[in-house]
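Hi F.,

I've been meaning to write this up properly since the lab meeting, where we talked about keeping a consistent format for the predictions we share between groups. The idea is simple: the sequence comes first, exactly as it goes in, then the structure tokens exactly as they come out, then a line or two of notes. No screenshots and no reformatting. I'm using this chain as the first example so we have something concrete to point to.
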Amino acid sequence: MHQAVETYLANEREKVLISLGLIDHYVKEYGPYGAPYVMFDKDTQQYYYNRPVAVDVTDAEFEKILQLATLRQQTAKVPTGQTANNKIESRHRLQNINNGAEKTLRVFNMVFLILGIILASLTLISGLMAPYSIARQYRIIIAIGIVLVFLYNWAIMKTFINISNNLHEINAKIE
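Output, unedited:
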């Protein structure tokens, strides 16, 4: 077998074992700053991360592990009393309901932001057209305040929409 193929198979085997939680020990590996779960070693003044090393198993043990993992994955996908098609259909129904509510919120949020910008623009224009006085200054300040309030409201609503999307994704993964 070619050396590159052997290396690939060994790496994939180790990834499978690690993903199943079969970790023997961790190795301190120095690497770039962008590596996952980076820590700083004060002694060597370098960044490192603890790379997991899989348990050493024979080919027969690995085959048995794969069979059990596959069996566990198949039984976990479909709960008792429910077929795979029923589960997919219920998930699509749930997503359609949620997408409708989230789309409504997004549209309302955008309309609210546009109205705020229009209102602030009108206030600013009326402030700039007024003769120079203290009222002109107040109108300009009020226009800036209106923009800030509507932007703040838009950001908060967008955050709630994103939280709702994330909760629906988590719920779909749990089911």
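Notes:
The longest strand covers residues 46-54.
The radius of gyration is 29 Å.

If this format works for you, I'll send the rest the same way.

G.
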